[in-house]
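Sequence in, structure out.
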Amino acid sequence: MPARKVRVEVFDGDGNRYTVTFQGHVTRDKALRLLDIVELLGGMPRANSELGQGYSELSKFDKVCYIVKENFPVVWFLSRDVQTLYEEKLKEPISLSTVSTYLSRMADRGFVIRNKMSQHLRYRMVTEISRSTLSFMKDNK
């Protein structure tokens, strides 16, 4: 597998710019470490790791969006993964068909992309890089 290069630029509240470059074999663990560094530098707000009070008024769709944003920022995932985490974190049941429907709607809205892998659909959050790549591919058709 060829070496990949990831560069992240972060601006903190004081206007300072930090540039972090990673070159080599990118794994999920290394990408999450890189995101931890970005968070420490103040590049993204700290999200509440557990849904608690104040989230009960959210719709199921919003809760699924939160689970996806919090747990799958840079990796491919299946609807079953979202269902499992939803039930673990929120302590409430949700059917697999409901999760699949919501992920399909999220894909239609451009929040996630989907890819058919053998018999399963897998999903991934759309990042600015993937969004620009998708628009470039559409423009060159």
